[in-house]
């Protein structure tokens, strides 16, 4: 599915008005290769942890207890994100002449620094890890998810700059003044495309959409109605709605099911799940979420 309103034919363009792409995606620090993609993800994780900690402590949770949750939730999110990406793009990794299990070969399933982090996979893995840790710490998962929502969508905005550095996941050709320059040797560009063609900067679209979403979530989070997981439900619907559009105009290859890319279906699923959580939690918990702790696991008052 493509949105014709956002697309145009590939024609030469004046690059003086375009958005340039970085010429490098990594740098050397002694014997180490530092990838900007990884740095963008790391900055996003830090932002999400700091903002979530601030929101949790306001609810009475111990300061920086979010770090305990992150020790399991973050690794599981990354692992599941990679697994989801590889499954939905398996032709990029498996086939004649490929050696997907060699971590030192380009195109390896382990080469996460080359890109390939699927947010829908990370949501599954991260939520599972968070649920396990919340049970151990006596916290309500709904409290954590509501506290996490604004930081999570900001982290995703940071992560999208990694796609810019890697010159990946860009959109269809465009003649709009904010078109994105891409190296004409990029394998994602269709054969026969003129060398001076510009493309939709889908990374930038998502950065703007996610940043606006963070502001909306921070505002709604001030109201008691958006407790019991309902703020996280808004996040799912906001983020999913944007991804439906961005995925529909991206050029990177993807499996198509019933005419839609797999990530479009994932985004539709996120919107549907968010709506379901909103309805179910409103029916189950019309009252305010007074405590962030599981029943019977509230911390004992500090002794004088």
From TrEMBL:
Topological type in the membrane: Multi-pass membrane protein
Pathway where this protein functions: Protein modification; lipoprotein biosynthesis (diacylglyceryl transfer)
Gene Ontology MF term list: transferase activity
Membrane-spanning ranges: 34-52, 64-87, 107-132, 144-162, 203-221, 228-246, 258-280
Binding site for a 1,2-diacyl-sn-glycero-3-phospho-(1'-sn-glycerol): 160
Coiled coil: none
Cell compartments where the protein resides: Cell membrane
EC numbers on record: 2.5.1.145
The entry's keywords: Cell membrane, Membrane, Transferase, Transmembrane, Transmembrane helix
Entries under Pfam families matching the protein: LGT
Name recorded for this polypeptide: Phosphatidylglycerol--prolipoprotein diacylglyceryl transferase
Lineage: Bacteria, Bacillati, Actinomycetota, Actinomycetes, Micrococcales
């Amino acid at each position: 599915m493509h949105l014709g309103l956002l697309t145009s034919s590939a024609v030469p363009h004046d690059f003086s008005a375009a958005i340039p792409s970085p010429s490098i995606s990594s740098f050397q620090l002694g014997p180490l290769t530092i990838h900007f993609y990884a740095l963008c993800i790391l900055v996003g994780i830090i932002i999400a942890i700091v903002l979530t900690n601030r929101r949790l402590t306001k609810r009475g949770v111990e300061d920086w207890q979010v770090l305990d949750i992150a020790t399991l939730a973050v690794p599981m999110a990354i692992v599941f994100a990679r697994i989801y990406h590889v499954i939905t793009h398996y032709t990029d990794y498996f086939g004649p002449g490929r050696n997907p299990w060699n971590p030192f070969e380009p195109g390896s399933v382990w080469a996460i620094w080359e890109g390939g982090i699927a947010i829908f996979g990370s949501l599954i893995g991260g939520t599972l890890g968070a649920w396990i840790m919340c049970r151990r710490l006596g916290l309500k998962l709904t409290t954590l998810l509501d506290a996490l929502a604004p930081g999570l969508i900001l982290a995703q905005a940071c992560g999208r700059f990694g796609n810019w550095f890697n010159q990946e996941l860009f959109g269809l050709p465009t003649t709009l003044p904010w078109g994105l320059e891409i190296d004409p040797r990029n394998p994602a560009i269709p054969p026969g495309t003129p060398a001076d063609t510009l493309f939709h900067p889908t990374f930038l679209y998502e950065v703007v959409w996610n940043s606006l979403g963070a502001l909306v979530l921070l505002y709604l989070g001030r109201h008691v109605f958006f407790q019991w997981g309902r703020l996280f439900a808004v996040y799912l619907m906001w983020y999913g709605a944007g991804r439906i559009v961005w995925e529909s105009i991206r050029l990177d290859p993807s499996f198509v099911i019933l005419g839609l890319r797999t990530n479009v279906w994932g985004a539709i699923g996120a919107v549907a799940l968010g709506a379901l959580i909103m309805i179910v939690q409103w029916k189950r918990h019309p009252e305010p979420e007074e405590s962030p702790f599981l029943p019977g696991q509230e911390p004992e008052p500090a002794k004088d």
